[in-house]
Amino acid sequence: MNYTFPENFIWGVATAAQQIEGGMREGGRGLSNWDVFSHIPGTISGGGVPDVACDSYHLVERDIAMMKELGVNSYRFSFSWPRIIPDGTGKVNPEGIAYYKKLLAGLKKAGIAANATMFHWDLPYALQVKGGFGNRDMIRWFLNYAKVLLDNFGEDIEYWVTFNEPIATFVGNAKGFFAPGLCDEAYARQCCHNLLVCHGETVKLFRSRNYQNAKIGIVVDVWKHYPADPTNPEDVAAAAAANETEGYGMYLHPLFLGGYSQYLNAYMKEHDVMPDIVPGDFETICQKVDFYGMNFYNVLIDDSAKQRRLAAEHGEGGNYQNRPEYHTELLERVLRETVDEYGIDVPLFISENGLPQIGMTDREAILDDQERIDYLDKVLKTLHKAIQGGIDVRGYYLWSLMDNFEWSAGYEHRFGIYYTDFETLERIPKKSAAWYSVVIRNNGIVRG
Ligand code: BGC
To answer: How far is the CA of 270 from the centre of ligand 1 (A)?
Structure first.
């Protein structure tokens, strides 16, 4: 059977500034919260730091050449706020602007459309010191940054994403294992609320420009939890709590339905972690977007009995026991349920999807990534089914173009379809790169 995607389907790859650029102290760049956090001993597996990463600050032409080899028609990347405005507010860095102009000129020449995220987790450290997203002044700071981006790059970007995965800001402020490394849930909820207001204000600013060819949206990851046994109230409760209080519900509900869900409101009252909400915030947050980007990696199956047993055996709980199981076949269901639950009536993208190679060191073995191909193949077939079934998904971005700085996992999780040699900075196509280029050429999977 052939799995042919709709005409004009977007086939892309995705990256983010902090994960690939390096050039930490070059070209007038300021420090980010992640630069500082990653240098604190013990925060990153293997002690990896993003100072050089893939060195895309210098090797951007090589990156574009790789994308040409693949044949992608869109590149999802992010702007580095500390490269554009080193202190977060105030002076704009001309070298930072020039860097992205060069990237965009290269993409244009290669016929690759730009999909750019304004904020993919790298907050200028100067603003972190002032309280980061927990400070309501952030709305003004972010809007100023967004204005600089729109003034310089407005219609050169086909798809603008305000924020990538707001959950990272929650994790960094409530759980401590992302930057800035705080463990304060009430503060984290304030940060996320303010972040959503920043999103809404940015959409308003964008609309005031009346662009003809640029669109704006947001990316929220959906790691949906399902109960292992839907007749077991404990499993059902575990899944609902995870989805609503810490997962996608926390963002999609205010973004598409206005306000927090009843479930989350009750939870926040009970735990005394309700953020300060200013009248009008929810109207601002649920501005009409042009598209919704869903990052999809996996779903999690909540089996409370198993979790309890593992917690007793290993001294930790959570869902790690599900990690090696990939439920790609559930993507269609996740898409359908998300669209229905939040009444999403705008086009969608799978704005990220990929598979890590964890802790592998042998280059030949890493290059032979059949496991990734098998995973991607299943995801695309399920995605095809979802589109056939009427879900309006316009494009797919593979995470990631190349192995890069994988946040707290450092360089130990390799998501690339190009191998990155972090000593020489050479990039080498993995088996999956050739596979993906055939998929793109065929606009789908032929005789799969
Ligand atoms: C993030 C990426 C990250 C990827 C793989 C997503 O949550 O947006 O920055 O590298 O997942 O973990």
So the answer is: 31
